[in-house]
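Example: Replication initiator protein A.
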Amino acid sequence: MFQQPDLMDNPDLPLQYAPYTQDDDIITGRRPLRPPFRIQHLGVFFLSDLFSAEYMHDSEFVHRRRLATLCGNKELFFTGNRFDQWDLDVLLYCVRRSPAGNGGPERCQVKPAELLHAHNRRNNEKNRERVFTSLKRLSSAAICIEGKGYQYTTQLMNRVLVDARQEECLVEVNGDVTMAFRRNGLEQIMRERLPQGGNGLAKWLLGAAQVYKGGFSSDLRSLYDLCRPKTKQKSQFIKRLEKALEQLEENGILTWWEMDGHTVRAVPRSTPTRNMACGLLHRYR
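Written out as structure tokens, the predicted fold is:
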């Protein structure tokens, strides 16, 4: 049933959730002549298969694999070992540990034992190695953004230094990534992710709820392409999806959800605001 995604840009994605935007010049008040690609909005991380709906899963290497996203007027390509929701947890932890700066790269020390404790994981040799492996994936992979007349390549982490005894690391997170999460409620994002444990699909759906606070709807095929789980059978995917939605409801993230035929709908428990957005997660040909 599920096939390799062949996405076109989604014209219905609100402007505030386009993947990249440009800041006003703080001195002149004018916009730069060229987009600096500084601020990456949450949709790039949460509404794509950049971080799949798995957790601590085996990773495969891919070269220029087109990411399934809802980006407008851009295509994203990934080269490296694929990420999952464990890698996103590691990235968020490093972002939180990074000193607050002006958007430039900031270094922080990361101790695997403390990271595992923060995520309620056992501090054993196998899990500590998973921390180091994740940091290596995050620092070695490249994301290429291509639009009309331009191409831009970036990384989520600039550098990772692992000491010889493997007791701690020195990590330098991309300053744009750090700023993106801090401007979009980093503490709440991490607080809501923690109770989801190792349920990768629940964490991916949580990301959709954190972007579309007014609720979201999706057909099953589009949702599968966007979250890219390892599950191949439709029946197994539906079971995982129902379990993940039930977990999010039990943990107070969703107030209501339903699966009607081939469509899933969900409404988060959010405080109403003027800028609250609803989303349609749909795969366009």
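Residues 234-250 form the longest helix (17 residues).
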